[in-house]
Protein 1
Amino acid sequence: MNDRSIAAIQAEIEEEFSMFDDWTAKYEYLIDLGRSLPLIDPALKDDDHLIRGCQSRVWMASALEGENMRYTADSDAIITKGIIGLLIRVLDNHPPEEVYAADLTFIDAIGLREHLSPTRANGLLSMVKQMKYDALAHTAKKSS
Amino acid sequence: MFSASELLELRAQFPILESTVHGKTLVYLDNAASTHKPDRVLESMNAYYRTTHSNVHRGVHQLSQKATEAFEQAREEVRLHLNASDASEIIFTKGCTDAINTVASGYAELLRAGDEVLVSTLEHHSNIVPWQMACRRSGAVLRVIPINDSGELLWDVALLSPRTRLVAVNHISNALGTINPIEQIVRDCHAQHTAVLVDGAQSGPHLSIDVQALDVDFYTLSGHKIYGPTGIGVLYGKRALLDALPPYQGGGDMIKTVRFEETTYADPPFKFEAGTPNMAGAIGLAEALRFVRDVGLKRIQEHETALLTQASAELAGMSELRLVGTAQRKASVLSFLIEGAHPYDIGVLLDHMGIAVRTGHHCTQPLMERLGIPGTARASFALYNTPVEVEAFVQAVRKATSMLYEPTQA
């Protein structure tokens, strides 16, 4: 279990991003983040885990580990991968009910909304939906 | 190359170029996807709706006759632009894709099992998929013209067999900018009685096209890529071939007589224009064609080639970049990759610097697969782009490169 709540982690990310005074610094950070995270077991980068965007590809795998959802993901585009790093930091290792209910306010707050717009064909919006869907599936299993 | 004052005058006709994105002046280099529209095109469409509009053909009342005249005058303008021998060879379509589908759908009925259709590796999906569909329906076989690593067609008359009924190829590649040897392909094909369809989506804005001199059997144009409106395009076809081609869609305007037992079709072009046509679109397109001729297609091409040469020379000097598509004969398109970076990343960073380029596979997945890349970032130039904009683009690519470049592990 993550020792901080989803809301607390989002607040922490917002705090970090408030220090960037221009877009360049923000994107350099995302690129670094994308580079520094070995996010997914290469064996999971298959069609079963592929979330199709039109341009960049995203792979995502999830599992219930004890009481908590665990997520790994990757993308062939580095900026997308950096944003994935943030999404996982927020949603990984929390109970499925909390993941499903999470309101991802940090996206707007740090000015990355455009990357999760339905018109942006990068797979990120579909990935978030899939993360929540997987959490919902485990919520249902636990309560049945 | 247009002079600075000529460029200012041209740009003043395109108010959208004054836009700002992310707080920066827009540098619009996505012209191969769609060009902007000069005021005179917008005004021609406005004037049509304000003063002339009514449904065309068979109207007795005066306004309908006025609208019909304006619509048919637009057809005459396209005929003149392409130097077709007769206006009945000019069919208005929704666009290039629709024009190709019109021919492919007719060929689906004309092709026999074992016949062959030849497309090229450089084709846009819209000049591949309709032919796959026609082949599936008819039992014909789709074959492919290969390319070299520079993105040039490896055309060889031996690619034609006695069963090759049609070759479908673009005049200019949308992804790489390669200008294809249409004259030679047509000569070789006609020697074997094979028809040739040329997808002119990309050539329309850059080349002066004479369908009789080229001797092509079918040629297509896209309105919105040649400073005209969206939702309008052109299919040119030789009259004898159009007479033999079954109609694409059924409906009003395309018939001679309708009885429940049997319907007879109108003659071209109406046979292929079922339903109320896009009159305002046709009129806007005709004005766009007058516009490019007034500016001068030769001068437009010279200007765009100068911009392409300037951009290519700057980018070619950067070792972190790879230019994709280095054909001897190229028009107005600069596709590239930053080593270690995905095209999507390049596009996102350039956008933040106000530069609009297209990224991705450009609807040419088989071409990207052949080149072994996921896609490219593509800058494409139009008559209103300036050397200053090219410099801004180059600087933005330098900055994106400094942020993204990662040497690939050998």
Protein 2
Amino acid sequence: MTERPIPLSIRVRLAHALAQRVADEHGVDLLHVKGPAVDPALRDPGRSGTDVDVLVRPAHLDTFVAALADLGWERYSEFETGSPFEHAANYWHSDWGYIDVHREFPGFQADPQTVFDRLWADRQTLPIAARDCQVPGRIGQALVLLLHAARDESRGTTEVPRIWSALDTPGATGTDGTAHIADTAGQEAVRALAAELGSTVALAAALGELDQHRGARDYALWAAYSQGGSRFDKAIGRVKAEPTLRGKARAALHAVPVNTDALAMRLGRAPTRAEVAQEFGYRVWLGMRDGSRAVAGSVRERLDRSDAPDRGPRLPGHRQSRLAGLAGRLRRRRDAAPPPESGEPR
Amino acid sequence: MSANSGWLTRRYAVGPDTAYVTPEEDTQAATDTAYLALLPHGPIVLLEGSAYLLFWAVAAEPDGALGEQVLAAAREAAAEASIGAPELAEQVAAFLTDLVTRGFLVESGRS
């Protein structure tokens, strides 16, 4: 027996096995998603994953994370601060690496319990590192992967077409050895599951069909994420996507969050209030800068549109005439202003 | 069979808390290597070469393997090595005992 650095992909597999062992011991229902937990036909052969992703039954979440903590796992980021979606907490262990504990998955509008129950109902067993791990059925796996891709513009061009076409590859077999659904039934099943769990718009974003959902509450959110929008666009999208005023207020407050856990890891100690405030200020400044660009771009675009009706769709009715009036006033003021003195920037 | 050869008729199997990855599962594992982890506390260890082959002789059998089956695999692997039969048996027995002691394997049956 020798000691040597463990290849990352192997450490990830062993950590999957560990997560399942902890779940089994404590009666926790969880589903392994992404990485080695994915059907080989859907998996990107060039991508092995850097951490373990598990979706935990919401009612079992506290038990699972407490068990991890008892085993010496350190919380690297909290649910509330780990990401703008507040969907996962990240745990770290020096021997095993990272586990991303998901309490929900961005893209599903159905409540987390409903989503988990639905995915759990179709679960399969997949051996990872010689341990039987619970994974979603193939259709659930594909939907989770596609919703994940919807949050990352770079995955849209390569990963999505591969997953989508693999769904309907006849003759292949699933992780449980059963034959895949033939013809286009796989894609239709993914669309049906998305509709059932309220993820039609997010799926459309992944598939490049977002324009069909311009009127949807979460259209702006998925447009921003799938098309490389700015932080400001994403923050606005999150606020718009919330169905309640309370949710909108919360989303607005968390629009530029500080990952205090990551900050603590970076500093090697708990950050002081001043350090959190400083970090917050930095994040706000970044957000503001993005925001000011977006606002300036938007106004410029609207002014241009009011001046050149053939360049694209115009704003409806009263908003358009108000902007046209504003544009006219701005132009008159600019034209009336004396020419700048030499050397003065204009 | 000598007095301490009871291990030959004992059955060895992968322990219930053992996870392992071999090149058959992950191509990042080099040929003839196995990464073993004892769940949930560790450690994670690497078996290489003949150690991997002996472990695999056990792991490849769903119900585990008898000591004499592992020894047969060792003889085959060591066919071209200049090692005497008694010494080989001693090393295989020591290896299996070590993995059992560490918790990676479990043993059962006659002794």
